[in-house]
Records
---
Amino acid sequence: MEKLLLYLAYPFVRYALVVGVLIALCSSLLGVTLVLKRFSFIGDGLSHVAFGAMAISGILGVTNDTLVVLPITIVSAILLLKTGQNTKIKGDAAIAMISVGALAFGYLLMNIFSTSSNLSGDVCSTLFGSTSILTLRKEEVWLCAILSVLVVLFFIFFYNKIFDVTFDENFARSAGTKVDLYNLIIAVIIAVIIVLAMNLVGSLLISALIIFPALSAMRLFDSFKSVTICSAIVSVICAFGGIIVSILAGTPVGSTIVAVDVVVFFVCFIVGKIKGGSRA
Amino acid sequence: MRKKIFGFIGIVMMTVMLSACGNTNSKVDQVIQNQMQEADTVTDKSEDTKDIMETETDQFSESTENLFAEYVAEDTVSESVLGDNIDLTVLSSTMVYSEVYNMMYSPHNYEGKTVKMNGLFVAYTNKDKSQYYPAVIIADATACCLQGLEFILEGNPAYPAGYPEVDTEITVVGTFETYEEDGYTYCRLQNAKIL
């Protein structure tokens, strides 16, 4: 306990906890929608796109790579999600195309136009997010907090529309809902969350933040609202617990958070089985 | 709509609470005040007992204040977290890596502080091998990234005299300083000792 108090006295630890919790909250809210729309791996795809964009920003010598990464990721998200359900190349194939292509080109460009003395280290750190969350500046914390609040507000105020667009786009469109607009907004928000979440768990593990809380909640509850609230609570607890465990035990932050997510999923699975809860 | 407004208010309150979570001073003051008020309201008629209780309360208040005074952090940096002594040997590898990163990123906040750290000894050299830069390095949790701190032993002996073998695990303590070389700012521990 004394050691934990000591660690909590460091500002970068508090920043990591605040940002980690906010990112986990936002990703879990959107995660329910994505899982139900069968876009579970969108996080993986977009994070690989962001990785490729980071490679480009490094080559261009851009100091703040968010200026390059965020727009490229948003455009990719729009291409993947705005087309909605009535598209020729379906969700999983489209994600796979963009994902592996961006990852391959990103790593290729980083090797050819290397600007770092430790390429492997930079790539490893970006992919797995070992300590990125613990090296945040105060401005980055504020940026994350503002974006997270906006995402949560959007989810609260447009909950009904998101519900409609998630379950049946065609019906929502016939009822007068601007489905394309909401798909566009959701795509932008997902891109923002992915770019922020790369700092927390790295590119390869982002999908866990999106998928596991939603699936854990679906083991326990049936209604969209209950699943969403439960998913948010599970995600926040797992992120908080994962960060605390990683700084105490000296383990990589991203992997520890995902490990906690997996454990909680199995617990919820067992509880759901005992309760006789419905499946996803 | 009312639910959404309440939800919005809830989020604003949560954000405000989160932004104030580092203000340990107010919590400490409150605890100390409560403790002191409780001590003052004791109605024990024995003067000796009251004196003893007040003494213990004062000692507790003082020790608590001292403990938390060391841990109060300023704004964006940890310059006052541990006072002038920064002991990285008591931290986990994840924390050490992050703190060393902060030292490299904001070195001016660590100038003059005594830093103690544990890691592997390495000696880097410049291109023509005319100068050596002894350093102690640590790896992050995935062991793919390394952070390190250059150090100069007390008396400034010429490498390799007085320095251990490369890749030896060492604990070094020294005074943190920055210096300029070829137009770049570097960090190192001055007057260092290997424990």
---
Amino acid sequence: METLKAQQKKKTAKTAMKITGAEAIIHCLLAEGVDLIYGYPGGAIMPVYDELYKFQDKLTHILTRHEQGATHAAQGYARVSGKVGVAMATSGPGATNLVTGLADAQIDSTPMVCITGQVPRHLLGSDAFQETDIVGISTPVTKWNYQITKASEIPEIIAKAFYIAKSGRPGPVLIDITKNAQFDELAFTYEKCTGVRSYTPFPKPEMSAIKAAAELINQAKRPYIVWGQGIILGEAEEELKALIEKTGIPAAWTIMGESAIPTSHPLNVGMVGMHGNYGPNVLTNECDLLLAIGMRFDDRVTGSLDTYAKQAKVVHFEIDPAEIDKNVKADVAVLGDAKETLQLLLPLVNTNSHEAWHNEFKAKDKIEFDTVIKNDIHPQKDGLTMGEVIEEINIASKNKAVIVTDVGQHQMIACRYAKFEQTKSNITSGGLGTMGFALPAAIGAKMGAMDREVVAIIGDGGYQMTIQELGVIFQHQVPVKIVVLNNDHLGMVRQWQELFFERRYASTVMVNPDFVKIAEGYHIEANRVSERKDLKQAVQKMIASDKPYFLEVKVEKEDNVFPMIPSGASVSDILLK
Amino acid sequence: MEKKWFTISVYAENNVGLLNRISGIFLKRHINIESLNVSKSEIEHVSKFTIVVNTTEDWTRKIVGQIEKQVEVIKAFYHTDDETIYQESALFKIDSALLFDERQIQNIIKESNSQIVTVSRDFFVLAKTGRRHEIDEMHNALEPYGILQFVRSGRIAVTKEAMPITEILENAIK
Ligand SMILES: Cc1ncc(C[n+]2csc(CCOP(=O)(O)OP(=O)(O)O)c2C)c(N)n1
């Protein structure tokens, strides 16, 4: 044994190349299967950019127009592909510009590795030019972070970064690398990380919990499933589908879980939360068993916790033990990866159909259709609604598009009305609600799924937060379709002002530029629609294009999104108008 | 729920950034750290944070969950005072003249079971180890005579129940 180990050591010592830290970073990325990164250069990361230049045939670097754009592009890429997204930036302002994207990825559990340059080790703590303590700043918004100050640390730390970002409940990792560590040489060998002793990616499922869950399911008269992104992250779509088909349990989704089960599936009853569907919200308080699968009871989902599902037994399927009993107390907690736990659960549950219970959802659906949906999708008034635009996109894309949304009214409308057949198709900023997310995220989504149609749906406000990323779309001819639903307002905030602040529209009226001209300035084909008669054809034309395309739709200025659970109210008290 | 004293014990890999990560968890929830002590533990390369909070058990449990979730944390526990053996230490620096001028000072030293660490012409230093209230009592007794400097350490604690950290680490490596 000893000699074998010694031999192996000798062998690796022989194959270890002496290279610079900067080159080692590239080799690490290649070893992790990375072929695409987003970023922005600057002084403290220049040695790495120099290597990127040499390796450009193996590793594509996309120069976003702002580091925030790099993070959202990496997120979009990660969310459609399931792979780790990578963003890179220089020290100081480059690094601080990553913070919003890190926070977004942290709260939405998106696997991402950010690499930042840092001033040389001997200048750390001296307030050197472009020195910021990015490790300190990013600590609350990363799953893990680390500062490398020696070249020899690079392979092990980068391997660990990818492992941590992707495993268990995914999240963002930031690695800060001082400039001396980029310049210095090391003997390079690379081994993928397969474990970190202090870190358990996910707990092993306990059969007793699964049996207890099955028992409750088999006894329940009005069982109800709410699933979240855990299904998508855990690639448990088939298992969830099998479970609902066998048990006949109606199942609703959080916006992060949308698209895991096709919209048209008869057991998919719709969206929960503040602007979710009527039945799924109201009946949360009328079920006798709530099965929460891969979701974390965000306050935008639950409304007031004091009145949330109090009548029901709660079974929480969850990968992260810290989520158990955090917001809603679970009668049974099934810890583990959803794919594994659902597989174990399936043989233990009885076949059922719960028809009467389903009919209650259908009755509520009819109420919602008559009071809300009909007017959203087939409006009688002159002005265009956001809902009818989404419906036209559904039709033109045959429900096959990846829909990337920004934040606001258009986001809620898109999540409500977009139809999906395939998983990983709804990319949105859920937990953080980051305006400016959609345009760069759509770039990443398209590059992560080149075979798919990617449509970004953005408000006129959020669009102008990252509009400069049109430069990337133009330069690299990324064929995303950009739809700006222009209501000349910060619509969602205006809606709250109308409902809760007596229409005092403080700073929510937008005086907008000519968006078509701006797109054309970037040599992107562009069109504007302001009348219903032109809508269908304009959307069809956009979808038919195989190039980047911009479509502005002038929608009604003061429409509101309903249903709505006013913040702090109960899911039962959802307003239909 | 009623507020109580809880001792949170965190076993973690030695890492420069970890203290920042852990303190952020308390900061975010406006929970004051009443005392904090970091030291090595019984296991090589594993450090132990001992954190005392005064809050509800529900909050304590949630915080411990968040702490344990950090990549470098091996395991975190919380215990009530009854479940631990705990101590704090304090140092009192006092004017040497008082040793001779105030007879009562000698009695306080004796009764408090404290040790004289050093004596010089100008001052002497008393060390006291014990429960928080014992240190407080001694402080109260000395205060009228004048304390030149006072410092108290964070709580250190060991639990009555076993802490299976070595097992956890061995299982993690498998
Ligand atoms: C970065 C950021 N700043 C502020 C907000 C608060 N906010 C939420 S929705 C919204 C209005 C969005 O307006 P717009 O992009 O035009 O979309 P609409 O609601 O009109 O569809 C604002 C300001 C936010 N979510 N993100």
